[in-house]
Amino acid sequence: FVKMEAPVRLIAEGEKQHYELSDGSSIWLNRNSSLSYKTSFNRQERRVKLSGEAFFDVCKDSRPFVVETDRMDITVHGTKFTVSAYKDRAQTAWLEEGSIAVKGRGLSETLLSPDQRVSFDNGQWTVVDEAASSHTSWIQDRLVMNNRPLSEIVNSLEHWYGTALTVSDAEAAG
Predict the structure, then answer these.
(1) pLDDT digit string (tens) for 24-82?
(2) What string of H, E and C letters represents the secondary structure of the chain?
């Protein structure tokens, strides 16, 4: 008989949650996010599937650690980064420390350096320099929105507080 492993599903519905995986890696799931993986990692790789947003602090290991979303696969060997893969937003990865390789449909493997982000939005991939710390502050219950358009700020606040916001000045809303 082959032992079938049921996948583990971690969920953070109304608030962020912190988890430690069996390999010692730490994951913080943001609100309305889920992470699934097999109960034990195999000998070749450590693979998880993310829906929503998570910060990863991955332990160094000879096996690659792979984060799979519906738009991209991110491969790491020991690093700190954030992935946002909500269905209604651009899918984005921000690298804080170490290096990650990102692949996706229409994107050949792209290696990121610290303080770079890769995004898939409206059918386009972009890689730009951007401080990752602005996108990991939610772990400390802070939102940092320096030099972001009002529409992004409103979107972040709606997600953070779980409520709809209206900007009455159409010109300011952009």
Answers:
(1) 999 999 988 999 988 778 788 899 999 999 999 999 888 899 999 999 999 997 799 99
(2) CCCCCCEEEEEECCCCEEEECCCCCEEEECCCEEEEEECCCCCCCEEEEEEEEEEEECCCCCCCEEEECCCEEEEECCCEEEEEECCCCCEEEEEEECCEEEEECCEEEEEECCCEEEEEECCEEEEEECCHHHHCHHHHCCCCCCCCCHHHHHHHHHHHHCCCCCCCCHHHHC
Distance in angstroms (rounded) separating the CA atoms of residues 113 and 104: 18
Count the Cβ atoms, other than its own, within 10 Å of residue 91: 21
State the DSSP code for 171: H
DSSP single-letter state for residue 87: T
Q: What is the pTM of this model?
A: 0.80
Cα→Cα distances 28→10, 125, 129, 156, 162, Å: 10, 25, 23, 17, 18
SS3 63: coil
**Cα torsion angle, 46, 117, 134, 92, sign:** negative
